[in-house]
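Lesson 9: reading folded outputs for more than one chain in a single document. The general rule is that every protein is listed as its sequence immediately followed by its structure tokens, and records are never interleaved. Here is the first one.
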Amino acid sequence: MAWVDFIGSVHSSTSRDYLARVTEDDKAACAEIACRWDEEYWDGDRKFGFGGYKYDGRWRGVAERIATHYHLTDGAKILDVGCGKAFLLYEFTQIFPNASVTGIDISSYAIRNAKPEIADRLIIGDASRLPFADDHFDLVISFNVLHNLYIEALFQALGEIERVGRGQTNVTVEAYRTESEKVNLLYWQLTCRAFHTPNEWEWIFEQAGYAGDYSFIFFE
């Protein structure tokens, strides 16, 4: 395993009012709505999630960095576990017109409202049960998804990512290093089920048999 960060700059570019998240609304009620993964989470009020998740091109640089780091070539088979509206997968198709990209997400709303250019390559499904053959993909990625799973499903999802990839995998999850970051994470999150330090995450990866790359996002 190796620390390889691709989305830290995207995460840090967003401003967040942590205190307002827990004082202006009933956060527990907002979280209940967010966990439906429906329109409110993606394109509703900010208190329920993204507050409008629209394509703006920010994922192009991420796709380029990933392609360079993993030496991807045109025709590569790429899987995004928890693809959302598949903006990142779309960018891969712009870099590699012959790439075979596949996205899976639990949110039927996200899949219905994904980039139409790759809609036929997306499926609704569960990260803990990937419907693909062993060693099928050249690269498997999962960004900001696995911390939303309870521990049994989390272990299963890590095992599945390892199973369907050919050795090149990368997952990014939320974590905290300090009490301040822990509080900010607890204040801001709506859907997180796994709250761990980097050392704890690395232990989980090892216990689950996940040997791929990883990184963390922090709420500073």
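And here is the second record, again sequence then tokens.
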Amino acid sequence: MIVLGIETSTPQTSVALGSDEQMLGSISLAARRARHEVAISALERLLEWTGVELTQVGGVAVGIGPGLFTGLRVGVETGKSLAQTLGVPIIGVASLDALAFGSRTTRRTIVSAIDARRGEVYFGRYLPVPGGVARQGEFQLLSPEGAVAEIQASGEETLLVGNGATLYRHTFESELGGQVTFAPSALDHPDASSLVGLALPRFEREEHDQLFDIAPLYLRKSDAEIAWDQRAGSDPA
């Protein structure tokens, strides 16, 4: 079975094709063009390079966030449209899970930190297990100081991965010292190949998601919603 992965939760757009036998190929781009154009163009190029026909795709794995609002919406809708057009099952994968999966060979606790803008990060904690990672607790939206407090409270040697870890590296280093190490910046963004790796066992067990259940995972309101709430709150009764 060939699985297509689409990941757009951060400024990097990534697509990948893989099966239970091998990863066939992946493309990651940080482009200023519209996300839909980037994702579709990257997919077309990947199909050309790998020699895979779109009709050979047997499942779609899409990153559902948390992450950037516009990017997530585009990625999720693209994945759903392709799954519906091809008539194949779809699985939504949390982008923080995919980010941690890329560092699964470490022996340390893994903390995924995606830049959430506004001086905050999307935060998830994981333990490496044979063949993957196991999430510990719920996703959180934290300030860098809040993330530091969570890591301090755990007392565990921790590998930090993600563009949020890179952005606030000075804060983490100054407050946590030798308790933390940092993954290479090449792993700053969740990759579509990790989506494929996480989704394949679920496809094999036929643990698909319903198409209408796939939706972006937002841990806070959008700027437009916040602005609307502020205007509504300022209106006289």
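What the second record shows: The beta strands are 2-7, 13-18, 23-29, 57-63, 90-93, 109-115, 121-129, 132-142, 158-161, 180-182.
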